[in-house]
Amino acid sequence: MESEANKILDEVTQGDYKYGFFTDIDMEYAPTGLSEDTIRYISNKKNEPEFLLEFRLKAYRHWLTMAMPKWAHLDIEPINFQDIIFYAAPKRKRELSSLDEVDPELLATFTKLGISLDEQKKLSGVAVDAVIDSVSVKTTFSDTLSKHGIIFCSFSEAVQNHPDLVKQYMGSVVPYTDNYFAALNSAVFSDGSFCFIPKGVRCPMELSTYFRINAANTGQFERTLIVAEEGAYVSYMEGCTAPQRDENQLHAAIVEIVAMKDAEVKYSTVQNWYPGDKNGLGGIYNFVTKRGICKGSNSKISWTQVETGSAITWKYPSCILMGDNSVGEFYSVAVTNHHQQADTGTKMIHLGKNTRSTIISKGISAGKSNNSYRGQVRISKNAVNSRNYSQCDSLLLGSRCGAHTWPYIQVDNKSSIVEHEATTSKISEDQLFYCQQRGISAESAIGLIVNGYAKEVLKQLPMEFAVEAQKLLSISLEGSVG
Amino acid sequence: MLLQIKNLHAGINGKEILRGVNLEVNKGEVHAIMGPNGTGKSTLASVIAGREVFDVTAGEILYKGKNLEALSIEDRAREGIFLGFQYPVEIPGVSITNFLRTAVNEIRKFKGLDPLPGGDFLRLMEEKKRLVEITSNLTNRSVNEGFSGGEKKKNEIFQMAMLEPMLAILDETDSGLDIDALRIVANGVNKLRRPDNAFVVITHYQRLLDYIVPDFVHVLFEGKIVKSGSKELAIELEEKGYDWIKKEQEA
Amino acid sequence: MQTEHNEIISKARLIGLFEKNRKLLVRNDTKFLAVKRDKAFASFVELGFPDTSLESWSLTDLEECLARGYDYHLHPMKEMDIQKVFRCNIPHLDTAVIGQLNGWYVSKDVPLMKLGNGIIMGSLAEARKTYPQLIEKYYGTMADDMAEGLTALNTAFAQDGVFIYVPDHVKSPRPVQLINVIHHGENLFLQPRNLIVVGANAKLSLVHCDDSYNHQASFSNIVTEVHVGAHGVLDHYKLQNLNNESTLVSSVYFRLEEAANLESHYISLNGGMLRNNIRLLFNGPHGNANIYGIYLMDGRQHVDNQVFVDHAHPGCTSHEMFKGILDEHAHAIFNGHVLVRRDAVKTDARQTNKNILLTDTARVNSKPFLEIYNDDVKCSHGSTTGQLDTESMFYMRQRGIGEDTARMLLMFAFADEIVSKIAIPQLRQRIEDMVKKRLQGELQICEQCVLHCSSPEHPVEFQIDMSKILA
């Protein structure tokens, strides 16, 4: 019985990573390794203003004083930063003025990924910023959005066209001193998306960024900044994939969100970086710092993530609830299979009065993977009448994986209520048998059950993403019968 | 006069629910308050009991001629106001005996009486249990914990019997009761009726009033008493439905 | 030097003290134990005192406590007054109650006794001399000197404490009460060491009290090793009622063999700085452990419960429930850690931590960890922090119960979920009374330990009939 179950499990967990192809395009690279020269090279390539170079160098010098964090439940091979190429970009000779000028290979790449950069063909209502390796290749619908006063462009463009906004907000939520990978990103970040929603504007379409690592031996260090002014609303989506390679590649990103009074930002991620093969060879090291600040009263930031990829995930999208009555949400589905390791969760820092936060985390582990939820809920003394509810469930598929829950709860006043619940379970034999008795194969049954298990989170995703995420869940877990 | 409510306005979180309620209740009377859901029946009961989440924005409540405004919840209770809850809360770990003994003795203390000796208290409990036909052993159970809907309501009437209030407000005590439980609850109330006390029975349906016959029936609609009459009004309401009141109000 | 006076406790001082007095410390050791002691000392030299850079100590800072001056006695103190421990004539005292005063075993007559049924009870120092083989079999096999600096320090300096041995198949007919009293005119640094062995298919009820009788500061670093043999049963009660100047680090290492059963109750009523390290290893399948805790803290009291349960074998059940009420500036920490190892299938583990904060200056940190390497398990944890339920408050006040009384009733009900688990009725009654008094702010430390009955100067309301307990 046991071996039969394992056989099915093995069969189905060998689902191939379908985004593992590599595109042969003409690239330019920074010299391998990291030094002040590398940073000057990147800054120079991007024709950056002096303040940004200064920022990078300060971050780099600070990074040199830091050590890689060890507290996560992750087993990480030492990273040799001198073996990494910190800047890689598809070659281009001049500014693009239309889609026709984008390298057809690149267009084909994104089409293959299911992302059309052609506004005509694209699902209406989603604007896309496509980032390949270190640079943004194309942002769609920029013109439509600018009519509303919305700025949606690559980070590099924002640096050139809106330096004051960048200067004002960059590093205001995640300072370069924040942590090891934030410092590294601040020193070497290449591109990313920038989004500014002016006062009172409800962004009429979903904004999205699609990240793709293509080149070998490179790291990707993008940086996203979203600012929602008073009363503004935006829903933002992020997707990521990478080719199948035997070596590990480093991804260290920063996302900063600022929500002013009455503003709302919804940030959704479907992370599907290459997870490595079933023997644990290759895959992306994903170290991401995501943080939003609810600066004004009644503001709201909501994080939704579906994490299926990466060999290692280290990521804690957080909310600083500074404004009174502000709301933070975190919805997460994290799937690990084979030798994947994930240590992910959130931080909800309650500073303002009547602040509310909700955490729903669903971890699913299969194969020989380890999946940890790590979350902090902190209610400061002044955050009177605040409330947090957390539910962190783990589902184990197979007897060789691990599921861990590490909540850190601190309450410093008497009028707040914090509730945390967690359960660990496996797919019940009864559920499986029931499905199978009705003619559903074990693989499909697991897909169904896991999707049901994750439903509370999936329903938070924008429509365009939800379908993709559901498929992804089934694929990542194919056949993980316990 | 036992209770006099004058132009009472009250609400919660800035939202007005009661918009000028007037009501007078004399000793020996039974009043029924009816009305559709969400018109403020439970709010009225809570406000009389002094629930702090509600704000009284205008008007006053006089009880035995005194303004209740400055009185705490427990002092109102000690003065003889009893609220039978629509949804009695479960209090794990607090036994009914301990709970009621504390209540009885704190009320006695308020009245300048000595605490009831243990034996007398237990005898009183047994006597009142019979009144509401409670046969199970309550003493070791926590307040309302694990009680069925009917048991909870019977327990409310039992507590009313123990505390012997002057003014009992029963908030939808009939909801969720089967016919036997309804009869027991109504019997309990009828046995407790005296010339010197009064009842305000809040209900959605006329059914309860077959068992507890009211002297007056009032219709509460959108925060105001829009119609008052004798027990026949309840029957009329049952036949015509609340839409009749709505139409009359809109006209 | 056999007594060091009023000096701050530092790593250097203790290293010096050990080196100067090693001969004295090892004089009754077998070779095996001397090696253990030296190894532990080496480990302490490496680890030192725990500080806040360690995750498990990040919220409990001992620096200030250590910096107070303490006396260190390497010999039993002369002014010892046994009557301080055994305040009154309790029937069957010589068999049921054993005591420690200022870290040393005290008795009215013999330091170590062997009862007719084979139970051995008494001074650990004596037991080392009398039953060296028995001691070697268990001593130091549960405590981890390599991981915890304070445990290593205790092992390095351990001289006396309590030894209880219940042979296989023997069911102790009466509960044993171990009273650990601190009463001295000077600040004391104490390191008692206890060893409790419950044999296979044996049974014991143990009430372990830590009390202080005056307001002098003290620092106790107690290590207790507890072995429960296959199918053995231990009912364990830990009562802590110490003055606000006391620091108590109590490390209890439980080892449960196949199908062993443990009920452990931690009742913390007072203490300046309380740290409970509770480490439990299931060393065989089908074991069962329930660990309950209640802490009622106010002033600037600090309580830190660290519970680690190692499910190393299949089919074991562990349930933890810790509840606390925090008033004024009190600070409570709960760190639960359940580890379910790869092969520990059919594990059932539950962790619950509930707290009530009565003021805006009270604080709670709760970290219930689950670390699971197996899918055939039933594991859950929950943590809540909040206030007394406002609905319940309204309900009670509507029935004429005053606000203060209603609050008291609800607090008592909150605590009662733990207290009601106490299996000895008379003890439960006594603790209920203590909890009530504590919640009303009327419980005094240094008056009487739980089972002490009336002494002339302290009339006690709740006379306990010892004959019932001992029956």
Description:
The complex is a heterotrimer of chains A (482), B (251) and C (471). With 482 residues, chain A is α/β, with parallel strands linked by helices. Chain A has one domain (2-481). Helix content of chain A is 24%, strand content 35%. Chain A has helices at 2-13, 36-45, 50-64, 104-112, 142-146, 155-161, 163-169, 180-188, 429-437, 442-453, 455-458, 463-477; strands at residues 27-29, 88-90, 126-132, 135-139, 151-154, 193-197, 206-212, 223-228, 233-241, 248-259, 264-271, 283-294, 300-307, 312-315, 318-321, 327-336, 341-350, 356-366, 370-379, 387-397, 402-411, 417-426. In chain A, a hairpin with a 2-residue loop joins strand 3 and strand 4 (135-139). Mean pLDDT of chain A is 83; it is low at 1-14 and 120-124. Chain B is an alpha/beta fold. Chain B has one domain (3-250): Rossmann fold (3-Layer(aba) Sandwich), CATH 3.40.50.300. Chain B is built from 8 helices and 12 strands. In chain B, the strands form 3 sheets. In chain B, strands 6-9-10-3-11-12 form a 6-stranded mixed beta sheet, with helices on both faces. Chain B has a 4-stranded antiparallel beta sheet with strand order 2-1-4-5, covered by helices on one side. In chain B, strands 7-8 form a two-stranded antiparallel ribbon. In chain B, strand 1 and strand 2 form a beta hairpin. Chain C has 471 residues and is of the alpha/beta class. Chain C has 2 domains: 3-284, no CATH class; 388-471, no CATH class. In chain C, strands 5, 6, 7, 9, 10, 12, 14, 16, 18, 20 and 22 form an 11-stranded mixed beta sheet that branches. A 10-stranded mixed beta sheet of chain C has the order 4-3-8-11-13-15-17-19-21-23. A two-stranded antiparallel ribbon of chain C has the order 1-2. The radius of gyration of chain C is 21 Å and the shape is globular. Chains in contact: A-C, B-C. At the A-C interface, strand 20, strand 21 and strand 22 of A face strand 22 and strand 23 of C. Strand 21 of chain A pairs antiparallel with strand 22 of chain C, so a sheet runs across the interface.
